């Protein structure tokens, strides 16, 4: 037998405090749900809107009905705006002097043909997906540092996309600057792994393929609909909540303490499937 300590706690988040940006719906809500089910003490969920069918309030209400002792707390914040991020840090500090897990998940996309690309589309995507993520990590680093230890570092998880490593869509429904922003997110994560590792903070990237969501549904339709994308995927389906839950809990848990600067694609392997179209 080898000397593996605390295996029963290896995939648990007992007692941890997390913040998930874009936690009101989609992948962020799957992540917040999974963290609470894995034993987290508190999960802050942030997004811009409190009200409405997809706002923070309904998400927090659902999360607080889970059969767990951990609690969800909502904070409205536009994480493309640096002043708003500073206020978000202060809000968290009102109740918690430390943060164990920061998930930079809120993201924006813009798609359309190359020549008439409006500059506001590029700005929106870069402000949230790159500059906003950088500022979130920079301004939360002191709270993360307080929570991290040599054996159990705090975690930054950046939600990128397989679009950060492939050239997924050009032409009429092109998403060039989205793809570029996600490539930047991948490299930001590697930089932070080296910068913040000595402060007992690890940084990794999760790169999803298609998961039905408000952000993705328009593009899924433009590309021929869910069935056609499923047919093209080696696993014959799109992503489901459990697929994100598993990788998020793993990266946030003691099992991933020594994983730093990695990106994990969660796409059923479809990013490698170009070869199936080959006529050679
Ligand atoms: N779904 C996919 O197929 C897919 C694939 C690859 C990568 N991703 C990435 O996964 C992440 C989540 O996407 P999703 O599909 O779950 O999208 P979604 O369902 O549309 O959710 C986006 C979340 O981000 C919040 N948000 C948007 N802009 C914000 C801002 N400026 N400040 C704060 N919060 C903001 C939204 O709430 P408010 O609107 O109220 O602010 C919402 O909570 C994104 O980074 C996306 O690029 C998704």
UniProtKB/TrEMBL annotation:
One term of GO molecular function: oxidoreductase activity
Signal peptide: none
Superkingdom field: Eukaryota
Keyword entries, A-Z: NADP, Oxidoreductase
SUPFAM superfamilies tied to this protein: NAD(P)-binding Rossmann-fold domains
UniProt xrefs under PANTHER family: 7-ALPHA-HYDROXYSTEROID DEHYDROGENASE (PTHR43618), NAD(P)-BINDING PROTEIN (PTHR43618:SF3)
Family membership noted in the UniProt record: Belongs to the short-chain dehydrogenases/reductases (SDR) family.
Name of the protein described by the UniProt record: Rhamnolipids biosynthesis 3-oxoacyl-(Acyl-carrier-protein) reductase
Source species: Paraphaeosphaeria minitans
């Amino acid at each position: 037998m080898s000397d593996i300590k605390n295996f029963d706690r290896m995939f648990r988040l007992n007692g941890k405090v997390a913040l998930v940006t874009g936690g009101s719906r989609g992948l962020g809500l799957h992540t917040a749900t999974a963290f609470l089910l894995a034993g987290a003490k508190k999960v802050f969920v942030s997004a811009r809107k409190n009200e409405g069918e997809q706002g923070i309030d309904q998400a927090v209400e659902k999360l607080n009905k889970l059969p767990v002792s951990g609690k969800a707390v909502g904070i409205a914040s536009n994480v493309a705006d640096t002043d708003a991020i500073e206020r978000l840090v202060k809000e968290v500090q009102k109740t918690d002097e430390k943060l164990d897990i920061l998930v930079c998940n809120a993201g924006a996309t813009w798609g359309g043909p190359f020549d008439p690309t409006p500059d506001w589309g590029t700005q929106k995507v870069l402000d949230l997906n790159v500059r906003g993520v950088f500022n979130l990590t920079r301004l939360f680093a002191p709270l993360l540092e307080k929570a991290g230890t040599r054996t159990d570092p705090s975690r930054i998880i950046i939600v990128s996309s397989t679009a950060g490593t492939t050239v997924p869509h050009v032409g009429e429904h092109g998403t060039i600057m989205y793809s570029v922003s996600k490539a930047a997110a991948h490299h930001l994560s590697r930089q932070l792994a080296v910068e913040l590792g000595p402060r007992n903070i690890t940084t990794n990237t999760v790169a999803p393929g298609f998961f039905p969501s408000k952000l993705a549904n328009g593009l899924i339709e433009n590309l021929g609909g869910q069935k056609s994308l499923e047919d093209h995927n080696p696993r014959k389906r799109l992503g489901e909540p459990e697929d994100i839950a598993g990788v998020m809990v793993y990266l946030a848990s003691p099992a991933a303490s020594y994983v730093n600067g990695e990106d994990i694609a969660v796409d059923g392997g479809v990013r490698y499937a170009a070869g199936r179209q080959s006529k050679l």
